[in-house]
Hints:
The complex is a heterodimer.
Chain A: H1 2-7, H2 11-15, H3 21-33, H4 35-52, H5 63-71, H6 81-102, E1 112-116, H7 156-162, H8 173-179, E2 188-193, E3 196-197, E4 200-201, E5 203-206, H9 213-216, H10 249-252, E6 258-267, E7 270-289, E8 294-299, E9 305-313, E10 321-329, E11 334-338
Antiparallel strand pairs in A: 1-2, 3-4, 5-6, 6-7, 7-8, 7-9, 7-10, 10-11
Chain B: H1 2-16, H2 19-35, H3 37-59, H4 62-79, H5 89-112, H6 123-126, H7 129-133, H8 140-147, H9 150-160, H10 163-174, H11 179-186, H12 190-208
Helix pairs in contact in B: 1-2, 2-3, 3-4, 3-5, 4-5, 5-11, 8-9, 10-12, 11-12
Amino acid sequence: MKDCQKxxxxxxxxxxxxxxxxxxxxxxxHIKGCPDAREELKQLERLGKTLKSIPEPKMPNxxxxxxxxxLHGKPPDVKPFWPRASWGLxxxxxxxxxxxxxxxxxxxxxxxxxxxxxxxxxxxxxxxSPVPPELDMTKPQTNRSANQQIxxxxxxxxxxxxxxxTQVSSSDNAVLAQQAVPVTAPPVVLAMGSIERSKKKxxxxxxxxxxxxxxxSSAPPVSLNTEQNDSSNNxxxxxxxxxxxxxxxxxxxxxxxxxxxxxxxIGPDKYQLNWETNLVTKGQILILDSxxxxxxxxxxxxxxxxxHQMMIDTSNxxxxxxxxxxxxxxxxxxxxxxxxxxxHQ
Amino acid sequence: xxxxxxxxxxxxxxxIASPGSERETDQRIIQEALSGDPGFEKLVKTYEQMVxxxxxxxxxxxxxxxxxxxxxxxxxxxxLSQFRGDSALSTWIYTITANLSRNAIRSKKNRAxxxxxxxxxxxxxxxxxxxxxxxxxxxxSSRKIESGDMREAIxxxxxxxxxxxxxxxxxxxxEDLDYEEIAKVLxxxxxxxxxRISRGRSLLREQLKDWL
Lengths: 345, 212
């Protein structure tokens, strides 16, 4: 038995005469006395023949033209993931908006909400926004109160493109992170209605990326464990030495930003997080309590990528919480974003 | 068409002929490709089927393989002037194809993944890949076997191999590259490649033994 465990792994190489003379002699000696080894060897031979008999895949007829077109500067057929998802959500939000306008006086149905928090002017915190206020759909455009629930609608792509993003380098992580704390300010309801997603009714909370929201908040100041933002202090996030083939150097020199981030409630205590970054990144999710302390942390165990999806279970969290997503690109540059406060149930 | 067949036959002969003649063929293709459009299109025609085939076998998806094939030739076009001839041209193109296929797999994997935090992690999630891959109930190749479609079962079993093993087995058993070539393409030692092929075949045999 012990001899079988030692010898059988060598059979695939014996089959191809890739063993040393000594190993080969040992295997041949074992085969003579082991019917299982003989059977395994026969199976391996049949496997080799079977693999070689697999027919060659037929190349698509238009592939040659596509290749030559690309070589002559024609752009590829882009099939981005997020725009599809975003437009789907946008369509749903549009329907929800119509529903909301028709039912704005009877706020009974709250199965679906898209919430954007009001944001303070960038000047109040000294952090400049990359988005002009008049274009920032995440900010209230009038003095409407939350109770009026007058909806602003923009396609999800527009919202996310114009959203004020929290972009940090390792040096200014601490400053921005302090400003980027989620708050409990009264939300502006963007749209309300019912939507079916994955055959389940879900509450979709679209968040803004505004690092300045805390300044407008009446909530008590929240302190963060800013060490979490410094990749040099976090061995899980030290990717500085890595490089990936296929990623142009000029792209690698750009700082990461969030193109999209959303939290989708998919069940009691369960949330799906989707985010997209402009560079390939790897993320860490931190569940924060109302004082900003980290209750739970999980690091993506998948390779660097643009699109990320993570499902989390917060049944072990016994208070209101928020979700912080910290991403690092291949050069170790960091970006961070937060969800709104999520209510404990 | 006749010209294309001639190029394919030339490529085939170049692989079984002496390394010297292979180098000469490579040199000719490269010089023609560097001289301009008709030459590069000839290179594309010579290698496009090979590139698509390998990408398809790595990715198991037609659309992704076609996308990777386009990117491969963009890369070849950009870098051909820097190709030093340390290896055969086909080996270099295999290497680019393997790298870009890996990138495509990474990207796709992250789009499809769903992670659940520890409290929801069931016993099944804690088991290693190795436990799962040998568990007939857990893998789709076994379902394919039960459904009686051997070809699909092989494709599924290949797809379920760990990427390192899958790449090595595909390059050896389907592409018929020798161990040294595979080591160059996958940027690993020959011993490592032998180990990956051996373990990959053992896993495949385990998965497909009802057919063998």
